[in-house]
Write a structure and sequence with these properties.
The chain is α+β, with helices and mostly antiparallel strands. The chain is 47% helix and 6% strand. Glutathione (GSH) binds next to loops.
Length: 287
């Protein structure tokens, strides 16, 4: 377990050359680095995003709302390439001062409404369309508890486990042990919950499932971090059953394609401006 010991100096200084996959976009300051407006398409909802687990939550939600017939959920999904720093444009910072995808503008309100943080976006859309969030107080409290559980827990899975297992410039046993322990504990929380419940909040599919699946479902499938074997995710049988049921939903399949820039080309729809963009994608595959 021995690793060179680091003695922190009295005052931390930013070493812009420090390693790691995301070193080029990580900074200790916030705000815009370039002056650039965001594009605005024809639909009421304008999404600025990328198909990471946090981004996929919102595209799945929008596709689920459209599948229920809510035409007001039509949206343009603009691609934000975070590895190239596009989240630091002045236009993006106006929508999300925290410079992280996903970010949403709703142009159907008297003055356009901005919403950032994926959990806030899911709640905003659920309330706007009165779907996927129970109204009965106890059921609503349960749903929001799981939604916020996801928001609070996933940074340990992503920023902790994923970062040190995949992205860090060196493999640190202490950090990988610490965050693997926590990741497995979280998988066990979900597995136990899903042993007695079809969906996270019981019989109904809600924004809690929509928030949790893109992280935990994709990790157990090995799609995120390629760690299914390391974490022995097949042992979480109830979580796996739920993961596969949600994976088979048409809206989830569509939502996972939007703003995707990696993996097989047939699964990538860089921008979505119309429902027919998916059909054109199928045509591309056939042709
Ligand atoms: N808590 C935020 C997290 C968003 C987030 O971390 N987004 C990442 C991609 S998954 C991002 O935009 N990173 C760019 C950066 O850190 O500069 C949410 O759920 O919306």
């Amino acid at each position: 377990m021995s690793q060179d010991t680091y003695n922190p100096p009295k005052v931390w200084k930013w070493d812009a050359t420090s390693g790691g996959k995301w070193a080029s976009i990580n900074r200790p300051i916030s705000g815009a680095t370039s002056q650039e407006k965001l594009p605005v398409g024809k639909h009421p909802l304008q999404l600025y995003s990328l198909a990471t687990p946090n981004g996929v939550k919102v595209t799945v939600m929008l596709e689920e709302l459209l599948a229920l017939g809510h035409s007001g959920a039509e949206y343009d999904a603009h691609l934000i390439r975070i590895a190239e720093g596009q989240q630091f444009s002045s236009g993006f910072v106006e929508v999300n001062p925290n410079s992280k995808i996903p970010a949403l503008m709703d142009h159907s309100t008297d003055t356009p409404t901005r919403v950032f943080e994926s959990g806030a976006i899911l709640m905003y859309l659920a309330e706007k369309f009165n779907e996927f969030l129970p109204t009965e107080p106890a059921a609503r409290a349960e749903c929001l508890s799981w939604l916020f559980w996801q928001m609070g827990s996933a940074p340990y899975l992503g920023g902790g486990f994923g970062h040190f297992y995949v992205y860090a410039p060196e493999k640190f046993e202490y950090a990988i042990d610490r965050f693997t322990m926590e990741a497995k504990r979280q998988l066990d929380v979900l597995d136990k919950r899903l042993a007695d419940n079809r969906f996270i909040c019981g019989d109904d599919y809600t924004i809690a499932d929509i928030a949790i699946w893109p992280w935990y479902g994709q990790v157990v499938l090995g799609n995120v971090y390629d760690a299914a074997e390391f974490l022995q995710t097949h042992e979480y049988t109830h979580l796996m059953r739920w993961t596969k049921e949600i994976e088979s939903r048409e809206a989830v399949k569509r939502g996972c394609m939007v703003n995707k820039t990696s993996g097989p080309e047939s699964g990538q729809l860089h921008e979505r401006h119309d429902a027919s963009d998916f059909d054109n994608k199928t045509q591309d595959k056939i042709g």
